[in-house]
Amino acid sequence: MPSTRRAASTLMDENCPILVSRSLGSLDLPDIWPTNCTTHDFQAVYKCFNKQAAAIIDGKSIAEEITSRIACEVRRMKESTGKVPGLAVIIVGQRWDSQTYVRNKIKACEEAGIKSLMTELAGNCKEDEVVNALSRFNKDPTIHGILVQLPLPQHLDEERILNELSLEKDVDGFHPLNMGNLAMRGREPLFIPCTPKGCIELLIRSGVEIMGKKAVVIGRSNIVGLPTSLLLQRYHATVSIVHAFTKNPEQITCEADIVVTAAGVPNLVRGNWLKPGAIVIDVGTNPIEDSSCEHGYRLIGDVCFEEAVRVVSAITPVPGGVGPMTIAMLLSNTLDSAKRAYDFT
Ligand SMILES: NC(=O)C1=CN([C@@H]2O[C@H](COP(=O)(O)OP(=O)(O)OC[C@H]3O[C@@H](n4cnc5c(N)ncnc54)[C@H](OP(=O)(O)O)[C@@H]3O)[C@@H](O)[C@H]2O)C=CC1
Ligand SMILES: Nc1nc(=O)c2c([nH]1)NC[C@@H]1CN(c3ccc(C(=O)N[C@@H](CCC(=O)O)C(=O)O)cc3)C=[N+]21
């Protein structure tokens, strides 16, 4: 059983903040985790499978708990200011996976009482149409977060489009200034990218101490791998990054206490890549054909789950691990943004 259990079982009180990960402001100081701020329902963190060594970190129920706390905050905000947070989503083209993710995000907004607007543009639209939609949302005072669903079609210049996004509404945390501030010591980004923030939240809620641990991040993309490695460093892990050109990735990975995988390669990480007792956060969300499933496919992660559960002490499942947390963090960033806009605490 991971040492994580002891810390996670320390019950938290009703006044715990929505997220247990602290503001980045004090991250240059040694970390002392608040003992009263883990999950109040230990069962929500781990679902244990019979005869498996590893605890399964239940991201879905943790995300539900966070979302219900956000909903309470939104109600409190509405009662006191008459306003609610607003999120705008821009989606270009008909990719089925993007459509699903965006639908899930809009549904989560409804659950939390957050207003959502969506602009859908044709896959062959002009760059200016995307920029115009962005500019409208930038100016709309009822919108506090804007998300441009990625990837964009090839003909669109992602860099130019993301540069247009108002820094104060960049709830994805992808703006270069947000990313730069995340990377630099002593600086604080306005928003932390949702998936990396969700990974850290899962680690902390599972009672995992990050400080001083060896962490390996597989993948270095702007949206997951890179910000995750920066964030883990902020929490004082010693971080190695594995990417497509890394030689002998298994040798690096098997030394890690914490492994975060975001490669998009199904079953890349085998049981023998992992150190016994390690904690694994599997971000990978890969569709594989399966005629027995409703839509003819199912989702699996980057980690060979069946092998990993016999080696590690805790692991996130796919689906039901990081994915729902990404959405919960999007709501959290949107709420924070609205609080800033209305000076509401
Ligand atoms: N659950 C969630 O909330 C989210 C899940 N995802 C999922 O996470 C995965 C990664 O997404 P994203 O970061 O956008 O993907 P990208 O394709 O942008 O990046 C993939 C990264 O993985 C590296 N990589 C690819 N193949 C290998 C390999 N064989 N060995 C080691 N490294 C490798 C690449 O290296 P290099 O840089 O050298 O090319 C690259 O840095 C996908 O499955 C995606 O669906 C993404 C976002 C959110
Ligand atoms: N601007 C932008 N911001 C993003 O945050 C962003 C993006 N673009 N492009 C694509 C990736 C991917 N991503 C996911 C979000 C939720 C799940 C999710 O909810 N997954 C569920 C399963 C969903 C299903 O059943 O299809 C789960 O893992 O349990 C997965 C992946 C956000 N991304």
What's a quick, concise take on this entry?
This protein has 345 residues and is α/β, with parallel strands linked by helices. Helices cover 37% and strands 15% of the residues.
Structural overview:
This protein is of the alpha/beta class and 345 residues long. The chain folds into two domains: 4-14 and 32-48 and 192-323, NAD(P)-binding Rossmann-like Domain (Rossmann fold, 3-Layer(aba) Sandwich), CATH 3.40.50; 82-172, Rossmann fold. Helices cover 37% and strands 15% of the residues. The protein contains twelve helices and twelve strands. It has helices spanning 4-8, 42-45, 59-81, 96-112, 127-139, 158-164, 176-183, 194-205, 225-234, 249-253, 305-308, 322-342; strands at residues 46-48, 55-57, 86-92, 115-121, 145-148, 214-218, 238-242, 258-261, 279-282, 286-289, 297-300, 314-315. A seven-stranded mixed beta sheet has the order 1-2-12-9-8-6-7. The chain has a three-stranded parallel beta sheet with strand order 4-3-5, sandwiched between helices. Strands 10-11 form a two-stranded antiparallel sheet. Strand 3 (86-92), helix 4 and strand 4 form a beta-alpha-beta unit. The longest helix has 23 residues, at 59-81. The chain is globular and about 50 Å long. 44% of the residues are buried. Residues 195, 218-221, 223-225, 242-246, 249, 262-265, 268, 283-286, 322-323, 326 line the site of NADPH dihydro-nicotinamide-adenine-dinucleotide phosphate. 5,10-Methenyltetrahydrofolate (GUE) binds next to helix 4, strand 5, helix 8 and helix 12. Residues 193-341 form the Tetrahydrofolate dehydrogenase/cyclohydrolase NAD(P)-binding domain.
